[in-house]
Amino acid sequence: MRPKPKVRNSSASLDVSIRETLFHLYRRKAKLDRLIRRLEAARFARPYADGIPLSTKYPV
Prior knowledge:
about 60 residues, mainly alpha, 2 helices, about 0% strand
């Protein structure tokens, strides 16, 4: 078996991988932002859902 030829990371392919990573991170951040917004809305809608202020139960 011959060793695989080393592929040099061309700047073009590197750009693409960086762009894909950024896209992935932005999508994950958007998902987390939506989750946080939903949690905050729930916290202000029912601050004393089970008699305990949610802010003490889930400190931000």
